[in-house]
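OP here, attaching both records as promised.
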Amino acid sequence: MLRTLAVAAMLLITSNTQAQDGRAVRTQRAESYGNTLNLGLGVGYYRYFGQTTPFFNVNYEFNVAHNFTLAPSIGIASYRSANHYDWAGHHYYYHETVVPIALKGTYYFDELLGAGPDWDFYLGASVGFVYDKVTWDDGYYGSTTMAAGTSGLYLDGHIGAEYHFNKRIGMYLDLSSGISTLGLAIHHR
């Protein structure tokens, strides 16, 4: 996963250099990254599920310092087991729902990379907790703990980029250690 993130970062930096097509690079940007609603759809990999699963995420970024934002974030992933579990001669399925609630800190590297006004490049980290609910078929009385030994702590590292279609709408790709999303960014400036 780390190799994938590094390759993606290099591709984004390379494509940004080519995309500037002769525009003058500003040394000081007055860009504001906050006041942005991000709606993402993608795949998540949780130790809870043990496999990838569809994921929806929403967060709202607030400016905190120069090139730095904080964003309260909530997401949801839901999964129904593909395999049955044999307990006492009966077969059972389970349904699991995971809801991470976190605070995402993001640092934008646009000035350092000389990114044009159409692009944003960032690194971030999320910390929070995970609400995890498992429901078994009726009649199952075995162990209901799917992820024994896991805590409710949620930690996730992010690397990403956003392309601005105009001043209000952009599309972003957020690659991370747990949840990767492609989404729509709505800027309220």
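Record two, same layout:
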Amino acid sequence: METALFIALIIISFVMIALVILQGRTAGLQSRDTSSIYRTKRGLEKTMHQTTIILAVVFLLLALITSLPFSIFSSTAPAPTGLLSLLGLF
């Protein structure tokens, strides 16, 4: 069960990275329009923004659950200490 939580954390982190990169494509120096300071997010942009927030909250909760010092699950195996030991490569 703990392994499933770690795998979920990894998957959520990659999805969040992709969403943040896709959202930042018109930010910063690439945007030449200085006439409007704020514009409303609509459509896909709004959905991506809301999905990023939801995934960030889920990531935070999963990270807190997996970092608990006691084992909620009845596993006697020690928790993996890194990605390589989680995958069984180390």
